[in-house]
């Protein structure tokens, strides 16, 4: 089974290649992009180290970590971001999504469009039962995407961890397979 590529109205979600390193580091290296991510701004060298792991994340194999996609524009092929579906507990069919878009392409609905397609793969081909997402409460763009995807806010943790040197405010969102299917039917 292959989970690549996925085509949406404006995007293609495909496997990373080593040639994507510069374009990826151009946005993953920005402090404002990394601000609410679990990682610090990434150098070109760091991105080059990570790409083989992302290529290996193709959703197949017993120990697969998940499925990692590079997000490119259909019109130009330009790489504008990356999205992931992590497999958290395959026995309980749990997954978690993540997404990062280059600032030049934010606020145009691209993350939502990409993640709608990723949810369809997660609940469809992969057969997940529940997909969750986490973000800092100050990361409005991120939790807005979760709400537009029809995910429910399940938790708002206040100061339950130190995140990048200060108290966090963590939101947890999730959607169950039957909730997702009902929403598909309604649309
Ligand atoms: C989170 C992120 C992926 C969203 O990507 P995107 O392509 O801009 O998302 P969309 O355009 O699909 O939706 C963003 C929504 O948030 C809103 N939004 C974004 N920033 C906002 C802000 N500062 N205040 C209020 N609303 C904001 C947008 O208006 C849009 O909502 P709308 O369609 O109702 O107007 C992008 O901002 C990003 O890459 N951020 C840096 C990396 C990151 O934090 N990733 C998530 C880690 S948990």
Automatic annotation (TrEMBL):
Signal peptide residue numbers: none
InterPro entries attached to this UniProt entry: Acyl_CoA_acyltransferase, GNAT_dom, Ribosomal_N-acetyltransferase
N-acetyltransferase domain span: 11-178
Keywords of this entry: Transferase
One Pfam family here: Acetyltransf_3
GO cellular component terms attached to this protein's record: cytoplasm
Single GO term (MF): protein-N-terminal-alanine acetyltransferase activity
Protein name (database record): Putative acetyltransferase
Species for this entry: Pelagibacterium halotolerans (strain DSM 22347 / JCM 15775 / CGMCC 1.7692 / B2)
């Amino acid at each position: 089974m292959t989970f690549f590529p996925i085509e949406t109205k404006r995007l293609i979600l495909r496997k990373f290649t080593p040639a994507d390193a510069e374009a990826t580091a151009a946005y993953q290296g920005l402090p404002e992009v990394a601000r609410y991510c679990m990682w610090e701004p990434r150098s070109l060298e760091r991105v080059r180290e990570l790409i083989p792991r992302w290529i290996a994340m193709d959703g197949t194999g017993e120990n697969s970590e998940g499925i990692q996609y590079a997000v490119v524009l259909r019109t130009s092929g330009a790489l504008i971001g990356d999205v992931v579906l992590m497999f958290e507990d395959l026995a309980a069919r749990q997954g978690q999504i993540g997404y990062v878009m280059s600032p030049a392409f934010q606020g145009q609905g691209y993350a939502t469009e990409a993640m709608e397609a990723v949810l369809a793969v997660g609940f469809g081909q992969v057969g997940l039962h529940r997909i969750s997402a986490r973000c800092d409460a100050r990361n409005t763009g991120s939790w807005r995407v979760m709400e537009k995807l029809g995910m429910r806010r399940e938790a708002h943790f206040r100061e339950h961890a130190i995140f990048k040197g200060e108290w966090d405010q963590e939101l947890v969102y999730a959607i169950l397979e039957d909730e997702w299917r009902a929403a598909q039917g309604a649309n």
